[in-house]
Each structure stands twice: as structure tokens, then as C-alpha cells.
Amino acid sequence: MAIRAVHERWGAVFAHLPDLGCGRDWAEVWKVRPLAPLTCDECRHPMYEKVFSSSGLRFFAHAPGAPKCALAEESPAHHLLKLELAAAARQAGAHAELEVRGPDGAWRADVLASDPAGAWRTALEAQLSPITPDDIAARTERMLQDGVSSVWFSDRMRAPWFGTVPWARVATGDGALAVREGLAKFAGRHWEAGPQGVPAAEFLRWVFAGRVLSHRRRAPVRSPLPAWGTVWTAPQYADAETAYLDAEERRKREQAERERALLLRRREEKQLQMQREQERARAEGGHKAAVQALLARQAALEIPVAQFVHRETGSYPFVSDKGEPEFAMGVPVYLGLTPYGVVCPVAGRLSALESSLASLVIFAASEGERRRIAGLTVPGQRIEVLA
């Protein structure tokens, strides 16, 4: 069934209009003999006029033997929804024409609403039969290529293409077509359901005036609003979502930068700690080596010296841990606080210190060292060989 047909002489005629849209009366095509010369604007097959006895709805039907045609397959519900959309568009201040074909037949609008001043055109599509999201998106794109936006309407509860294209779920309540779902508003952090039961004429008035727009949602939704990808919303809500997401992105970026800075600082602190531990280990290793060397020296020198002094004096001496300049770089040996002797003084320094070292016992490490030292000490100075 269809609302539009083509009369052989009058051109396009519309069953729902009192004058058929061409200044003629319905009676001129209704039950006339011979049949009125009407053809389908889609498939060019002959058509004839019909009226639903229950509702009085007028339409055109294809004559028997019609080829496969989209208009021929339209249901009464689809036909009625087109009429309601056209009426709502006119109430919203738009010019509305039914079953308009696009250039080269690339598309056909159920209702083509347009600005009386020619600023815009919007197809109002009654989609009650099943269709895939990909197919409905492709049909929408074909119209957009010709500068025609679209709004898809259905009375189904959960059509799979809801949220894919600009859409609205409608229902008839109190005898008037109204939008039940499709509107949403942004509430600070998420989307929630917008007004429901908005009269279709009011909804279209918002759409035509740009007071609502079809918006691709990015922020999450709050139940019971389903997670539709596309919703109708006011421009300020779309702007609010953008501002929120920008702020969230900035906050996450700053948080990531803080975390990176903290990680870098911890890494640097760890590296510094490792360096300090390595330096401490090296220092401890050096100290340990020095202690071991001192112990070795004590074992090589102190024990023979201590035994000698103990035999001579009955007391154990204190042996310094290093050579000193005032003892010709030899190691001094003390009894109490009094110098007793010097271990392995440098021969070349003895002559300069001859008087200060004259009373001390000189301990040589070998007979050869004793001979070198003997010629540089005062006559009769005691020199003992420890080896």
C-alpha cells in the first residue's frame, strides 16, 4: 500500500490530502470506471484506490501481478506512521512531502521535511520492519551524500539499530504520536534518560531548530538508560560531556605524570642508595684490608719486638701501627709513655736524628739492614736483629 501514486494527466497524487495535492477530489479516482490511470511511482505498475473500512484511511494499492516493490510491501501500520510523521512535521513548521525519491532513485524518504526557506531537508523514516544496523547506516549515508539528514522512528521496544543512526522510539498515547525513548541529558559524569512522552511535533520542532541534536555518546550511562551509542540531547549537554571528558583526560594525564615522577624519584633514590652501599662496601673492604695488613705487620714485627722487650725489661711494650717522621720513619716502641726503641728506621734519615734517637734500641729486620744502619748511628748504639 502507498499514499502516493502518479496520475497519467495530473501527476503526483496523495491519497491522504483532501484535494489529492493537485486540486482534484478523491471521488474522481474512487470507484470510477474505467479505473483511474494511476501507476506506482516506485515500480510503474498500475495502482488503484482503496479505503480501510474500519478507519476510513485512504491509500493506493498495486494491481495484481505487481513486481517486488517496497511500496507494495508496506503495512498499514507503516502507512499510518508516515502520515503521523508528516502531520507532526507540518505542526512543527516544516513543509512535508511523502514518499519522495532521491536523485537517480538512490533513496526514497517516507516523509521529506524541509525548511520553507530552503535552509535544510530532513527525511523522517518510519522503520517497523527488521533491518540490520549496517543497512540502516548505509541508507542514512546515501541520503547525507545528497545533503539530506534523517531521523528514524520505530514503535519497537528494542530495535537492534537503536543508537546506530539518529533515531527515536515512538508510541501513540491519548491519540497523539509521542517520543518515548531517544532523548538523554548529561548529569555531570554520566548520561541519564531525558524527557519521555514528548509530542512528536514538539520533538521535531526541537530537531528542526537545532535545540536538540543527534550526539555520539562517549561518557558512560546510568541505568535505566541503555548504553545507546547515539542519543538526542541539547547542545549544552554535548558541550558538558566534552568538558568533562577533557577534564578527565587532563586529570589522568597529570596523575600519570605524577606517578612517572614518583617512579623516577624512587629509581634515583634506589640508585643513590646502591651507590652509597657500594662506596660503603669499598670503604669497609679497604678498612678490612688495612686491618689485615696491620695484623700481618703486628705478627711480623710486634711479636718478636714484644718478646725481646719483655725479656729485657719484664714488661710488654706498645708498638705503634705506622712509621713516624721523628723516628726516621721507623715504628716507635714504647714502654708506658717513654720511647724504648724504633723498628726499621730509614737509614737515610738517621743522621739528621742522631741525637734524638741515641738512647733508643734500633730493631733491624735483617743483618744487612743492621750493617747499613750501624754506620749512621752514634757509637755504641744498640742495634738488634729480629730475624
Brief descriptors of the model:
rod-shaped, 387 residues, alpha+beta, 5-stranded antiparallel sheet, 21 strands, single chain
Describe the fold and architecture:
It is built from 7 helices and 21 strands. With 387 residues, it is of the alpha+beta class. A 7-stranded mixed beta sheet has the order 6-7-8-9-10-11-14. Helix 1 crosses helix 3.
What's the arrangement of secondary structure elements?
Layout: E1 4-7, E2 11-14, E3 38-39, E4 46-51, E5 58-62, H1 76-91, E6 95-101, E7 108-114, E8 121-126, H2 133-145, E9 149-154, E10 167-173, E11 176-181, E12 184-186, E13 191-193, E14 198-199, H3 200-209, E15 213-216, E16 230-233, H4 235-313, E17 318-319, E18 331-335, E19 338-343, H5 347-350, H6 354-357, E20 361-364, H7 367-374, E21 383-385
Parallel strand pairs: 8-9, 9-10, 19-20, 20-21
Antiparallel strand pairs: 1-2, 1-3, 3-4, 4-5, 6-7, 7-8, 10-11, 11-14, 12-13, 15-16, 17-18, 18-19
